[in-house]
Amino acid sequence: MTRRIAAHYVYPVIGAPIKNGYLEFDENGTLTGIGTLTGEMESTEFYNGVLVPGFTNAHCHLELSHLLNKFQQGTGMSGFINQINALRECAGPQERLEAAQHYLDQMYKDGVSAMADISNCNETFAIKAQSPMYTRTFLEVFGTLKEEALSVLDEVGKLHQEAQKIGIDAAPTPHSPYTMSPELLTLSSAAAVASGYLSYHNQESDEEESLLKTGTGALADNYKGRGLPTPPVLGKPAVFHFLNCLKKTGKRYPNTSILLVHNVATDQESITEVQATLNKVTWVTCPLSNLFIHRQLAPLDLFRKNGLNIAIGTDSLSSNTVLSMIEEIKCILNHFPHIAFEEILQWATLNGARAIGKEAQFGSFEIGKQPGAVLIDHFDFEQMKPTQASQSKRIV
After folding, report:
1. What is the value of pTM for the model shown?
2. Which of 46, 80, 116, 386 is the most buried (most CB within 10 A)?
């Protein structure tokens, strides 16, 4: 049975908005028709607002959902690390699982059709396997001691096997330059390249840049104060360390989809080097999280000037007060009002879907896809953008 829905505008993402547009879906949620309403049709469901494809949350830590309202804001990365170390297990396993289930369900209701999720353990595997939302899981590893690199990789290999048995797409991935020895960063990058997908916390803060450039700053003091090794001082932006370790894998990675996440401290030198080294890169911004921790945002205009592929993530409830893609979009519009909603929508949908290898199913309204359909209400039709009152709601 065909279901026809319509709204004041339909945003296909791959083309211009369709005024008084309609969408037709079959019983499996496959898009079978798209166009402009030409007359009154009793079978058409008409919605007040705009219809957009289901979102792709390009970076989330679902397993940290129990940490809502537990963290102090504006502490910088060093302060955030202290809090995550102290509070990560402040709730028991059942409470953690219930929180993760609640916010996974809420994200789906709010319109997220696909997600790149970070896991450090197996707690969320079962609920992700049972969810109607597609999830690609990045099994993130840590370990600053050179001698523990092989054992850490062995443990994440076991976690990978668990994920495969339960039926979710997953693979190991490195975390960041300061939480890993160069040896572990290289080994985990090699494992990620073998899977075809890699997610990496890149240049998340000025503290990270200072650590890699000069070996100084709050993050350097934090690690040295705890007697932990720090990465080599390069005198270069932090992303150079990641690229150096990636080259040491000895693997071919032209077709690996690499998600560089956060990028708050990214500059032109960094972008130029990444573009010279990598082929398939998505630059993921998590604006509300970056404001929460650092009171800074990624240089999106610099990204646009360089023609970068941009996607949007929510990060976790340890560094955010919501897991809401529409709120992330509104945040970007508030700080970069010259960027059109239509462009930002592509970041929030198709670009993220491409980054996790699911663009054939999600991210745009194209016949044969199953992207889901999301209503954005309280829309400003003069400015063609959401308002502060806008919310998102899954219709299909």
Report:
1. 0.98
2. 116
